[in-house]
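Record 1 of the preview.
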Amino acid sequence: MAAAAATTGAAPAGDKVDWRLATPLGLTYLVFFAAPFLILLGISFYADAEQTRLGLDSWLKFYTDRFYLKVIWDTLKLGIFAVIATTLLAYPLALVYRAASPTWQRVLLFIILMPLLTSVVIRTFAWIVILAREGVVNQTLMGLGLTATPLNLLQTELGLVIALTQIEMPLMLLPLLTIMNQMDQNLVDASRALGASKWRTFFRVILPLTLPGWIAGATLVFASATTAFISQSVIGGARLVYLPSLIWQQSMVVYNWPFAAVASLTLLFTVLAGIMALSWLGRFARTT
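->
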C-alpha cells in the first residue's frame, strides 16, 4: 500500500493535515484581533468626536497636518534607532557567547534572560534614576572629566534610545544566538585559513549566515520599540510625542475616538511596513 501511494504520488493517510486543529486559534484570532480591527476601522470613518456623522475628516486632518506626519516619522525613526543600537551591541555579545565555554554560555544566557524576568515598568523607572542629572551616567561623565555640567538625557530621544536598547536587547540576542549556534564553524575556519581577516570573515561569512536571526530579532525590536508606550511616556515625557502616546491622549483625554482610531491604524500600518521591509531583506539571507 505504501508503494502504491508512492506510485500515485498521494500522501499517506498519516501525513494528512487536520485543519480542525487550527480552529481554536482561528476563532481566537477573529474574536481578539479581526473583530476589534473592523470596529476600529469603522470608528475612524466618523467625522466628529460625537460619532454622529460619517466622513473622512479625521483621516484628512491626520494626514494633512505636519505635526502628525512628524509624529509618524518620529515613531518610525525611534524603531530604526532601537534596531541599530541593539544590533551594534548584540553581535559582539553573540560572538563572545559563541566563543565561550559551555559553562560561561549558561552564565551569559542567564544574564541575557534576566531582564525579561523584571517588569518593563520597573526597568523603565530604573532608567530614570540612571539618566537623571544626578544619575550614574552624569556622575561618571563628570568624574572622568568628560563634561563639566550634567547632560540632559531625560525627555530626549537619545535617552529614550539608550533605555530601549537595554530593554529590547534580549529580543535581538535570543534569535541571533540561536542561528549563530547553528552556524558551521568550519566555514569560519576556512575563511581564516584562506587569508581573510577577522573583519572580512565577519562581513563575508558570519553576517550573511546570521542574517535570518538578525531579521527575526530586528522585527521583534522594531515592533516593540515603536509601541513601547510606558518607556516613551516615562522617559520621553511630554516633550516627545509618538503614536502610542498620541493614541492615549486622543482616546482617554480628549475623547476623540475617531481621531484615535486613525492614529491606531496608522501605528499598525507603520509597524507592518517595518516588518515587511525586514521580510524583504530576508530574501538575501543564506543559511547553512
